[in-house]
Structure formats: structure tokens, C-alpha cells
Amino acid sequence: xxxxxxDDLRAYLARHYGPDRMIVSAAGAVSHEAVVAQxxxxxxxxxxxxxxxxxxxxxxxYVGGEYRQERELADAQMVLGFEGRPYYARxxxxxxxxxxxxxxxxxxxxxxxxxxxxxLCYAIYAFHWSFSDSGVFGIxxxxxxxxxxxxxxxxxxxxxxxxxxxxxxxxxxARAQMRASxxxxxxxxxxxxxxxxxxxxxxxxxxxxxxLIARLDAITAPxxxxxxxxxxxxxxxxxxxxxxxxxxxxxxxxxxxxxxGPSPRAAAGR
Length: 270
Fold this sequence. Notes:
The protein is of the alpha+beta class. It has 2 domains: 1-56, no CATH class; 65-269, CATH 3.30.830.10. It has helices at 6-16, 32-43, 92-103, 109-117, 148-164, 168-185, 189-203, 209-217, 221-232, 251-260, 264-269, and strands at 65-70, 76-83, 123-130, 135-143, 238-243. The chain is globular and about 60 Å long. Residues 265-270 have low confidence and may be disordered.
């Protein structure tokens, strides 16, 4: 950070922040013609020069890995990750639904099994982040030092169990959760403007809500089980942890457990 100079920042802005790389989105009580006129005056070719051409970048390559930082903290923070799906992939919406089923609230599998039934952590959730060429599917958990040794294997068993079967009731609940979030976001002009901008950036067009809901409705339990199997097996996981983490099993042990599938105890409890 100390090495940055004003010239470095100006050069960065010139490379990345030109009108050909910007999206302007507006929603609410606005006039389309007035917005276009304001944007043209502020960001027209005479006002902001186009940035120089950038070199093509190689697509991201997921490799997995492990990083631990042993520190004297009150609790341990752990993230277990896998390669996710890019935002244009067919499995994008299915990955979002899968993350909700596994760790998207108090009714999710991980919350119920790991926190409520076993009391192995005080916070746990799953997430799926998509990028232009790859993605990240992860599980974050916060727990005490004593619980960490048991926590990670239980999470692994739940992920392996997801690949063996997801119920239609779980899919229906997750779809309803996403549908409600989508429709309620329409009540806020700021949220609507952000949604329009993201869709233009990712898809080159604004997708009607009816189309988005249709894509959600097309997601089935067998499709999600198949997706879970493809995400959670066949590649090296990513493990990051900080705090009193000496009792956390190593990455090789967790990966081997995932490849073996859910333990008999986990399978019987589902």
C-alpha cells in the first residue's frame, strides 16, 4: 500500500474506468431521456477518453489448498470451499438453490444438523459466488477450539449426503425463499436499479422476472443432487482457518472423508 503513488492510481483509473466499461442504471421516478442526456454529457467520448486496450486474461484455474493461522482468539473461524459455477453457466441458479438448502437459514441442513442438533458451532452458512470464468461454493463456520475437531467431519458428511439425495420439500422451500427475495426487491428502486445493472453486466440484457422464476421452477431435486456430487467430489477442497485451529483435521483427511461418502451415522440420521 505504501508503494502506491498518485500516478499509479491515475493509470489504474485510465485502464479500467472508461465509458465503454460502465453501466448506468436508474429506476423509480426517472425520465429515460433525461438520464440518457445527463450520462451522455458526463461520459461522452469528448468528456471521458476511452481507456487503452487491455490484454486478454487467462481464465481462472481452481487448484484448492489449505491455509491456517494459529492465533489466541476466543473462537475459531473456518471456511471450506470448492470450485463453483460462473454466472453464465447452466448450473448458476441451481448452485444458488443448493447453497440455500445446505446453509441458507435456520431451516437449512447445516444449521439444523451442525448447530441445532449437535451444538458444534454458533454460526454456520453456505454461499455461492459466481464470477466471469469460475465461482466459489463455500461453507463458513465459527466455533470454539474444543468443537473444531468434530465440526469439520460433520460438515463433510452433510455435503456428501447432499450428493446422495435432496428432497423435493427442500427444493420447494429454497425456491420459495429465492422467489420471495426476488419479488420483494422490486419494491426498492435502489435494489431494482442494482438488479438491472447486474443483469446487463452478466447477460447483456435485462431478464424479466417471469423468466427468472421459470428458471427456478425448472430446478429439481435429482438435478441438485447431481450438482452436489459434481461440486463436492473429484477436486481438492480449499480450507482456510484462523484462531485456535490446532485440532482442525488436515485437508487430506477431509478430502478423503468426502470421497468415501457420508458416514453410516450421518446417512441414518437423514
